[in-house]
Amino acid sequence: MSRPLDHLDIKILRLLQENATHSVADIASKVGLSSTPCWKRIQRLQMDGVITGRVALVDQEKIGLGLSVFVFIEAGEQTKEWQASFATTLRGMPEVVEVYRLAGDYDYVLRVVVADMKSFDRFYRRLIKTTELKNVTSRFAMEKIKAITALPVVPPPPQATP
Amino acid sequence: MSRPLDHLDIKILRLLQENATHSVADIASKVGLSSTPCWKRIQRLQMDGVITGRVALVDQEKIGLGLSVFVFIEAGEQTKEWQASFATTLRGMPEVVEVYRLAGDYDYVLRVVVADMKSFDRFYRRLIKTTELKNVTSRFAMEKIKAITALPVVPPPPQATP
DNA sequence: GTTGAAAGAAACCGATC
DNA sequence: GATCGGTTTCTTTCAAC
Description:
The structure is a homodimer.
Chain A: H1 7-18, H2 24-31, H3 35-47, E1 51-58, E2 67-75, H4 80-91, E3 96-102, E4 108-114, H5 117-130, E5 133-147
Antiparallel strand pairs in A: 2-4, 2-5, 3-4
The structure holds a DNA duplex.
Organism (chains A, B): Rhodopseudomonas palustris (strain ATCC BAA-98 / CGA009)
Keywords (chains A, B): DNA-binding, Transcription, Transcription regulation
GO molecular function (chains A, B): sequence-specific DNA binding
């Protein structure tokens, strides 16, 4: 990270995380800057990898993917190789949209997005066939209460100056 | 939904979900269409609410949010009112980026994004102070293996025509 | 940081085949 | 659906302050 974010960067990130269709001039006026420096800041945020991309979001229901399932998994083995191979497998499965390795009694959580129970069953069979797993528990989402892509950008805590 | 998605819509959605910075002309040539009809399809997908927005994605680590925590919750009460009030509370908390109501032994999963353990503790105290909860279990993410916003757009299964 | 300007690219939208 | 054309808006860059 080349430079810590200042207040203006934070404002820019908040706006772009909510809506990336605004023009640079729009954003500039909202953060209280003129277009040129605002454009340069956005460029820099992209070059620095703070902004990783711009994407369109799609309504899950509207494309027929009515079911979200959280799958909790205990690893088959506790080795680096097993972990790497499992990660590769999951990255190749498009219905798996989130995977975190956890501390605690489960090793992994997945969020899986499918059309219905039948599709999930097909996914599930494919998953357990591909990899040796010790335990798999699936919990079905009844309702999506909240799902945002905007992260809470906050100023970094003041550094102690020794 | 006014019209089912055809193969071209699906291709467009796949491209825009990966990268929304492509020009219409780009997308058009990739899906094998000319600009105008491609532009009209994108407009329609937006009007129909299939595309819900375009956002910038931000690197969680780069803005100092090093910790993701999954919080599992058993509801304090099983009433509509409790559910609604709990949902409102969570929607007002920016560090809570995902909330699903689940079937099974836990009623809710949250994904919470914070800078560190200290910040999480502050969040946790705020959460349990605000709402009466029967049980709260926090599981910490050690590693983000995968997190994509692109949903697996698939053609709808052929309808039975009776 | 600011303003202003200017080239090129895109979005937008109608008309026509 | 394709192609054309034209208006408008935005991006991007470069000056000068």
